[in-house]
Amino acid sequence: MEWNVKTVDAHPNEEGHDDVIYNVHWSVSKVDGEYSASSYGTQSIDTSDLSNFKPFDEVTSEMVKGWVIDAMGEEEVANLEANLDSQIENEKNPTSITKTLDS
């Protein structure tokens, strides 16, 4: 599963810290050969404890991905991946198709 977590919302100043990330706009995608699936959403990040605060210019996508996964929890992340797998399976073996009549 490939994550994109590059877009965030931040409070300009919170408890004396600048640019405190509190919300992440995420998207995930998965590819299986010629088939692919994706999903997107937002995840709130708990900012009640800023004792391990990192300045914005030191924050990496990998860090933010970890924050999102931690906030979602293992079960939600597993459900998300299962949903992507299901989307791909439905592409491989569709139960419905759309057709256009000639006349």
Question: What characteristics describe this protein?
Answer:
alpha+beta; elongated; 103 residues; 3-stranded antiparallel β-sheet; 2 helices
Task: Explain briefly what this protein structure is.
This protein has helices spanning 61-72, 74-92, and strands spanning 2-14, 17-32, 35-44. With 103 residues, the protein is of the alpha+beta class. The longest helix has 19 residues, at 74-92.
Q: What does this molecule look like?
A:
With 103 residues, this protein is of the alpha+beta class. It has 2 helices and 3 strands, in the order βββαα. The chain has helices spanning 61-72, 74-92, and strands spanning 2-14, 17-32, 35-44. Strands 1-2-3 form a 3-stranded antiparallel β-sheet. The mean pLDDT is 97.
How many E-type strands?
A: 3
Poorly predicted regions: none
Whole-Å distance between the termini? 43 Å
- Number of H/I helices: 2
Radius of gyration: 18 Å
Q: Tell me, what's the shape? A: elongated
Question: How is the secondary structure organized here?
Answer:
Layout: E1 2-14, E2 17-32, E3 35-44, H1 61-72, H2 74-92
Antiparallel strand pairs: 1-2, 2-3
